[in-house]
Amino acid sequence: MDKPQPGRTTLLIMVSPVPARIGQITKLMTQDSKMPRQAAISLYRARMKRYLIITGDDFGFSWERNEGVMEAFNKGAITSASLLLNCTGTEEGAAMFKSSQLCPGLHLNLTEGSPVGEFDYETLVSTEEVFRGKFALRKHLDLGEINPVEIKRELDSQIKKFIELVGRAPVYVDGHQHIHIHSKVVELFAAALKQHNIRITRFPVEINMAAKEWVNPEYMPFFLAMIEKAHVAKKVLDDYGIKTTDSFVGLSTMGRDMTPERLQKIILEAFEVAESQLSSDKRGFTTCELMTHPGYPTHRILGGFSWGSDDFGCSEDRIHEINVLSSPEMKDFYKQNNIELVSHSILLS
């Protein structure tokens, strides 16, 4: 250890008792002897790098969605995209992965459209041979009416289909409508990722969600219940060695709910909370994922799943997201707050 210089005081900062973190968190700083301990801690945190992953969900939904996702990527507004495998634009989206630097992810889908696996599912699908839907599937899962073998087969089928189309495994896998963190799915999900040597997923917990007064109150019960399940699922993901970002945002800023001011508020809040919890461990940086839904309006009947597109898919809200994400206000915000846009690949290191 270097000797302190004359007239200076070596300030030892130990802000966490966790032994694994002491090497990084315990930092010797030569400062004025009158500097308050908290000020020194704040200075240390300010020097930590902030990495923001911006994910475009529902890639492959339609050619219109694909066009919007690629526009957002080319404008530097997103860094990764999650591909749906049972939609009209799936193969085009896969080809776009291969011809660009867009970070490839799989949007695991158990809730909408037709299954990818060529099996005679008896519980995972309805009598129409399509997935049961966002709420109906969760109900059947809660009642123990979905055969876990069928879930396992569909998980494996979607990962293999992605590899077949893209020519490589996805860098990460997240869940369409966050189905991957359901208590009856998460262990099967984590085991499938581990089997295919995929190490990254989404932890969809936006802090202070209940305080986001601009969110449609009809959506809030689902969000809050899903967040509660995600906290329980996190231990399973950790046990299987599946990584996530330190923080997550985007539940409260979908479609017209997205504004530069709201994005800036929730992103900064997420980083500050992550830094206060020192979740950067030995890396010297913190990470956050922003979930987005860029695109162009999809045709009501001709695009999307086997039955077409919903209202959100047909609306111009997704164009609105492209405009906000690529706005000068957001680019200035990133520069002013030491935020660097990266892809999920940062979590592989």
How is this fold's topology laid out?
Elements: E1 9-13, H1 19-25, E2 27-31, H2 37-46, E3 49-59, H3 63-74, E4 80-83, H4 90-98, E5 103-108, H5 134-142, H6 148-166, E6 172-175, H7 186-195, H8 220-239, E7 247-249, H9 260-276, E8 285-292, H10 311-314, H11 317-325, H12 328-336, E9 339-342
Parallel strand pairs: 3-4, 3-8, 3-9, 4-5, 5-6, 7-8
Antiparallel strand pairs: 1-2
Helix pairs in contact: 3-11
Verbal overview:
By secondary structure, the protein is α/β, with parallel strands linked by helices. Helices cover 39% and strands 14% of the residues. The chain has helices spanning 19-25, 37-46, 63-74, 90-98, 134-142, 148-166, 186-195, 220-239, 260-276, 311-314, 317-325, 328-336, and strands at 9-13, 27-31, 49-59, 80-83, 103-108, 172-175, 247-249, 285-292, 339-342. Strand 4 (80-83), helix 4 (90-98) and strand 5 form a beta-alpha-beta unit. It is globular. It starts with 8 loop residues before the first strand and ends in a 7-residue tail after the last strand. The model is unreliable at 1-33 (pLDDT under 50).
Rounded to an integer, what's the Rg over CA atoms? 22 Å
Helix and strand run: EHEHEHEHEHHEHHEHEHHHE
Ends: how far apart?
Answer: 28 Å
The biggest beta sheet is recorded as:
7 strands, parallel
Structural class computed from helices and strand pairing: alpha/beta
Helical coverage, percent range = 25-40%
Shape: globular
Number of helices: 12
What are the low-pLDDT stretches, counting only 5+ consecutive residues below 50? Answer: 1-33
Q: Give the percentage of residues in beta strands.
A: 5-15%
Total number of beta strands: 9
Oligomeric form: single chain
Cofactor: Mg(2+)
Family: Belongs to the YdjC deacetylase family.
GO molecular function, one term: deacetylase activity
Keywords: Carbohydrate metabolism, Hydrolase, Magnesium, Metal-binding
